[in-house]
């Protein structure tokens, strides 16, 4: 049987990322035109023949999240109506992932709604990275591949801080991130783990923090799936410093960096903030302490394996 052709398209959220993925796969990026009308409505036109082809549409649902999500849904619908054989939504940063459960009455579970919308639009599969909560994969009735940034983050952290005079300790910013912290600690040489016990007084506002674990005279690496306003990280750095940590590094995969996050992190006690390129960051939103590592090779290899019906989990062994 003739092998189905692989085609990669890019939305407007992170075109440089999608182009880099396409280049790594030695493919030309597909032609896709997005038109925004005066009333804000979007229209999409696919410029290449996709009939019977294995199509991957790359689009992070980062800010403006509603526009990028709607663009992704419309593009998937256009591909489905153009008779694509399989449509994989490649979402390096999955927006609305923090709304994954009901914490109080009369609130939505928006992550589930987004999953339903993607399936209804026509997505046959989803490829993403570092979901805020693993149970989101269960919101889909289609296959979901949730990549881990460890193969990119750990070598960098080991090279930069693994041979320092002071030992390392991996810090989880909350109880929910302990498993992620354990994975980093294991791959960094079975180093210690500490936890930040934080109490929130409202969304994006932390009222109190306590450090659980030994961080004295150690290089503390805070690991998380994302950094948003930077307030939690800044306060966590202060708490760790008060407990005797020598240096504090933040390793957060998705650089949401809303509002004045960049200024806040630059002025904080953090020595470095390490992130991935899952969200497009223009020069105006970057700051001196920020280090951006590319996860393009991970996504390119995952797409290659999905197309070839090979195992993805073996990438992380």
Write the topology of this structure.
Blueprint: E1 6-10, H1 15-24, E2 32-36, E3 42-46, E4 54-58, H2 65-81, E5 86-91, H3 110-121, E6 125-129, E7 144-147, H4 150-161, E8 168-172, H5 178-187, E9 192-202, E10 205-212, E11 219-227, H6 231-242, E12 247-255, H7 261-266, E13 272-276, E14 290-293, H8 296-307
Helix pairs in contact: 1-8
Structure at a glance:
This protein is α/β, with parallel strands linked by helices. It contains eight helices and 14 strands. The protein has two domains: 6-147 and 297-316, Rossmann fold (3-Layer(aba) Sandwich), CATH 3.40.50.2020; 150-293, Rossmann fold.
Shape from CA axes?
Answer: globular
Query: Strand fraction band?
Result: 25-35%
| Fraction of helical residues | 25-40%
Using DSSP, what is the number of strands? 14
Unreliable sequence segments: none
Give the termini distance in whole angstroms: 32 Å
What is the CA-atom radius of gyration, in angstroms? 20 Å
Overall mean pLDDT stands at 94
| CATH arch. level architecture of the largest domain | 3-Layer(aba) Sandwich
Question: What this model shows, in words?
Answer:
α1 (15-24) packs across α8. This protein has helices at 15-24, 65-81, 110-121, 150-161, 178-187, 231-242, 261-266, 296-307; strands at residues 6-10, 32-36, 42-46, 54-58, 86-91, 125-129, 144-147, 168-172, 192-202, 205-212, 219-227, 247-255, 272-276, 290-293. It is α/β, with parallel strands linked by helices. Helix content is 29%, strand content 27%. The strands form three sheets. A seven-stranded mixed β-sheet has the order 10-9-8-11-12-13-14, with helices on both faces. Strands 1-4-5-6-7 form a five-stranded parallel β-sheet, sandwiched between helices. The chain folds into two domains: 6-147 and 297-316, 3-Layer(aba) Sandwich (Rossmann fold), CATH 3.40.50.2020; 150-293, 3-Layer(aba) Sandwich (Rossmann fold), CATH 3.40.50. The mean pLDDT is 94.
């Amino acid at each position: 049987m003739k092998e189905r052709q692989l085609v990669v398209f890019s939305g407007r959220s992170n075109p440089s990322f999608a182009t880099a993925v396409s280049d790594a796969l030695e493919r030309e990026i597909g032609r896709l035109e997005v038109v925004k009308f005066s009333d804000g409505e979007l229209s999409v036109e696919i410029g290449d023949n996709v009939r019977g082809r294995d199509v991957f549409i790359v689009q992070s649902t980062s800010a403006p999240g509603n526009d990028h999500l709607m663009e992704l849904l419309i593009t998937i619908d256009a591909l489905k109506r153009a008779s694509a054989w399989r449509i994989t939504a490649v979402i390096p940063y999955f927006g609305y992932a923090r709304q994954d459960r009901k914490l109080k009455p009369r609130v939505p579970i928006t992550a589930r709604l987004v999953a339903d919308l993607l399936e209804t639009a026509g997505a046959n599969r989803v490829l993403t990275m570092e979901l805020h909560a693993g149970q989101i994969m269960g919101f889909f009735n289609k296959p979901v591949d949730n990549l881990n940034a460890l193969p990119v983050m750990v070598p960098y952290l080991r090279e930069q801080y693994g041979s320092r005079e002071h030992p390392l300790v991996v810090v989880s910013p909350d109880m929910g991130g302990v498993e992620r912290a354990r994975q980093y600690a294991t791959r960094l040489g079975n180093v210690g783990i500490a936890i930040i016990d934080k109490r929130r007084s409202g969304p994006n506002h932390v009222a109190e923090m306590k450090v659980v674990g030994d961080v004295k005279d150690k290089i503390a690496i805070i690991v998380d799936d994302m950094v948003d306003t930077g307030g939690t990280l800044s306060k966590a750095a202060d708490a760790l410093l008060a407990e005797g940590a020598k240096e504090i590094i933040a390793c957060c995969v998705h650089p949401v960096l809303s509002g004045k996050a960049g200024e806040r992190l630059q002025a904080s006690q953090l020595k470095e903030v390490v992130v991935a390129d899952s969200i497009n960051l223009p020069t105006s939103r970057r700051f001196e302490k920020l280090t951006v590592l590319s996860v393009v090779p991970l996504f390119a290899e995952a797409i290659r394996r999905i197309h070839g019906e090979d195992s993805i989990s073996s990438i992380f062994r």
